[in-house]
Each structure stands twice: as C-alpha cells, then as structure tokens.
C-alpha cells in the first residue's frame, strides 16, 4: 500500500541523511564517472544504505539508482524503487546545503510514493498517490500564478537559448537551485510558480518530485506536454516542464517543438 511504502521511504531517507552528513566537512573521496560527472564516497555509502534498507524490506521490488549498475530485471517488476542517493552532488562537494535524497516507488510506470529530503535544510517533502503532498507533515499546494510574464521560474540559463522557443524568449523572473529534486519541491510548496529543463532528464532526479508536484496540484510533463512514465528501459524522459497549470500551459505553447 502507498502509506506503508511512504513510511518505508521516509525512514530510509532519514537513514540516508545520517550517513551523508557524516561526510560533511571531511574527506569526500571525489572521483569521476564515465560521463565525467563527480561521485563521492558519500554517494556510494548512501546508495549502499538505501539498497540494504529498501531491498530488504521489499525484495520483490525492482531497483533503479544513479549509483547502481542497471539491470533489465527491474522491467519485469510491478513495483520499482527509483533512487538518487544524493541529488546535487556538486552542491554537496561545494559545502552547500541544497543537496537532497530523492526516493520514489513506481508501479506500472506511475509513481505511488515519494520522498525528497534535504537534511541540512530540515525539509522533507512527501506524497502518496491520492493523499496530497506535504512538507514536514504540513500540507502544501502549488501557487495560484496565472501568467508566465509575472511568474517565478526555476531554470538554468541554457534553457533560455532562442532555439528552444517559437518566438521571443519569454520574460519572467528566473532563479536556480542545483538539485533538480529540490527545484521540483520548491514548486510544489508554492515558493516558485514553475520549473523547466529541456535536457533529457534521468528518472532518479525527477520521479519523487513528479508525484509530489502532482499531489500538490501542479501540472508536470515532458517538454512536449506528454505525461511522464517511469521505469523505462532507458531511464530518461524528454525534459521536464512543471508548475501552476496556467504557467505550465504557457511554457508549452511558447516552446518550439
């Protein structure tokens, strides 16, 4: 059931935080992966903790994590854990507090339980399908923004390149946070009106945020407006556009397809 799965994810997120914070201020053992992105000893240690807790509790669930070798066996599972042990590794390395643990469970392509936890900010976003979204156990909701021109949007500068847009690049108030999971949470709690990224996005970065946003009343899709599905054979989606419905719709209308 989503409730018991959510409790499991919440407990696992706290255990992940206990492990990760032991590395704060100490040697991080930074190395590079095949795509030249950084990985630390903390990423790997958190991945081990999450794997032990979650897979022991639900041995029949599939497993998809940024820090584990992928296996096609997950495609045959009705439920699959989708995990980013530390989302915002560069932020973690730089000593910032905007990194997060992102944990989700997908059933037949749809996320049913989700947690995003930023331990250094004491922010735990959570959701179970059909039961609303919460921040530290308090209900949250997307903003009531009605126009992109006055919206507060989380995105990176490359997404404002003219080739992405049908006409002039829209004018709005832009901000950024390094963790994609945190950006999704900030929109879900209404502090920002929308977020978007047009790069292919890994499922482990966005699966938890997708449910939390939806349960908070936001709209979320890929850059073409297509609904997101998870536990795909290649675990990426075609960008992400999310936010208050009117702003989400305006962004999609303005995009070059």
Concise description?
This protein folds into two domains: 2-132, Fructose-1,6-Bisphosphatase, Chain A, domain 1 (2-Layer Sandwich), CATH 3.30.540.10; 148-254, 3-Layer(aba) Sandwich (D-Maltodextrin-Binding Protein, domain 2), CATH 3.40.190.80.
Topology (elements, then pairings):
Blueprint: H1 2-21, E1 31-32, E2 38-39, H2 41-57, E3 62-65, E4 79-87, H3 89-93, E5 100-107, E6 110-118, E7 123-128, E8 133-135, E9 138-139, E10 152-154, E11 173-175, H4 180-188, E12 194-197, E13 201-202, H5 203-215, E14 219-221, E15 236-237, E16 240-243, H6 245-254
Parallel strand pairs: 3-4, 10-11, 10-12
Antiparallel strand pairs: 1-2, 4-5, 5-6, 6-7, 7-8, 8-9, 12-16, 13-15, 14-16
Helix pairs in contact: 1-2, 4-5
Beta-strand percent range? 25-35%
Known CATH architecture of the largest domain: 2-Layer Sandwich
**3D shape:** globular
Superfamily (CATH H level) name of the largest domain: Fructose-1,6-Bisphosphatase, subunit A, domain 1
Quaternary organization:
single chain
Count of domain modules: 2
Annotated CATH topology of the largest domain: Fructose-1,6-Bisphosphatase, Chain A, domain 1
Which residue ranges are poorly predicted, with pLDDT under 50 across at least 5 consecutive positions?
A: none
The first-level CATH class of the largest domain is given as Alpha Beta
H/E series, N to C? HEEHEEHEEEEEEEHEEHEEEH
What proportion of the residues is helical, as a percent range? Answer: 25-40%
Number of strands: 16
Strand order of the largest sheet: 3-4-5-6-7-8-9
For the largest beta-sheet, the strand count, sense and barrel status come to:
7 strands, mixed
- Which structural class should the secondary elements be placed in? alpha+beta
Mean pLDDT: 96
Counting H and I runs of at least 4 residues, what is the number of helices? 6
Between the first and last Cα atoms, what is the distance in angstroms?
39 Å
Radius of gyration: 17 Å
């Amino acid at each position: 059931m989503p409730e018991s799965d959510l409790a499991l994810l919440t407990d696992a997120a706290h255990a992940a935080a206990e492990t990760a914070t032991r590395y704060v201020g100490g040697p991080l053992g930074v190395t590079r992966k095949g795509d030249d992105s950084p990985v630390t000893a903390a990423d790997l240690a958190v991945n081990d903790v999450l794997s032990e807790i979650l897979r022991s509790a639900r041995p029949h669930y599939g497993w998809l994590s940024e820090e584990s070798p992928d296996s096609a066996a997950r495609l045959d599972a009705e439920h699959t854990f989708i995990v980013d042990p530390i989302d915002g590794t560069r932020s973690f390395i730089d000593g910032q507090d905007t990194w997060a643990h992102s944990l989700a469970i997908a059933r037949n392509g749809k996320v049913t339980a989700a947690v995003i936890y930023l331990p250094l900010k004491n922010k735990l976003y959570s959701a179970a399908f059909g039961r609303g979204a919460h921040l530290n156990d308090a209900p949250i909701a997307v903003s009531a923004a009605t126009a992109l021109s006055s919206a507060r949007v989380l995105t990176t500068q490359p997404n404002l390149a003219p080739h992405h847009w049908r006409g002039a690049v829209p004018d709005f108030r832009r901000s950024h946070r390094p963790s994609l999971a945190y950006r999704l949470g900030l929109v879900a709690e209404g502090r920002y009106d929308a977020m978007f990224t047009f790069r292919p996005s890994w499922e482990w970065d966005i699966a938890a945020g997708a449910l939390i946003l939806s349960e908070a009343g936001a709209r979320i899709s890929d850059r073409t407006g297509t609904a997101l599905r998870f536990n795909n054979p290649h675990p990426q989606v075609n960008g992400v556009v999310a936010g208050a419905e009117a702003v989400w719709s305006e962004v999609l209308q303005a995009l070059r397809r």
